[in-house]
Amino acid sequence: MLKQIENRRSVRKYFNQKIESEKLTQILESARLAPSGSNTQPWSFIIVESEDTKEKLSFADHHQKWMMTAPVFIVCVADIRCRISADIEVKLDENSSQPELKQIIRDTSIAMEHILLEAEHLGLAACWTAWFEQAAVRPILNIPEDKYVCGIITLGYGDETPKPQLRKPLEEIIRYEKW
Ligand SMILES: Cc1cc2nc3c(=O)[nH]c(=O)nc-3n(C[C@H](O)[C@H](O)[C@H](O)COP(=O)(O)O)c2cc1C
Q1: Rounded to the nearest whole angstrom, what is the distance from the C-alpha of residue 116 to the centroid of ligand 1?
Q2: Which atom of ligand 1 approaches the CA of 162 most closely?
Q3: Where exactly are the structural domains of the chain?
Q4: Do the Cβ atoms of 107 and 76 come closer than 8 Å?
Q5: pLDDT tens digits, residue range 98-147?
Q6: Ligand 1 center to residue 128 CA distance, Å?
Q7: Does the beta carbon of 38 lie inside 6 Å of ligand 1?
């Protein structure tokens, strides 16, 4: 496990090669099995393969043109309705102070990391992207205003081997018994 965690990279260039549907299903299964607070499972995943929709999404995502080399985008959406009743009106965006928003983003992020690691395990490559505003991405996919897009993961066979990015040493991040 640690070897695969160590080998994972954010990959921003992909071969023009389709992903086998069994592999995509296995990756989504890894997300489905993620833990979440009170087992609320607030996530939904929109699989995007159409060139037209990918184009619109990458444009909304700070026009990161490299994204278009990926055959599949997984748009990862957090749903606050697992914590807030359907009759209460909620509109979510980057400035929302709704406390439950933190919880659903936290939980959906765990599932997203499962996707990155399962992709690595299957010999695929991925990159989490999130350089967008909710208002720009939502209308492209008809996502309602009570949902929050946590990120768009690009997925495919990697056509680059990025160098490892530096991480802080353990001594800097571990404390014992107290702060
Ligand atoms: C929440 C989040 C948002 C990110 N957004 C982007 C992005 O929009 N574009 C991009 O190229 N990389 C993005 N990344 C990838 C990071 O830049 C990358 O994880 C970091 O530099 C460490 O590199 P590594 O993943 O190869 O270890 C994002 C990563 C995370 C976790």
Answers
A1: 11
A2: 26
A3: 2-173
A4: no
A5: 999 999 999 999 999 999 999 999 999 999 999 999 999 999 999 999 99
A6: 6
A7: no
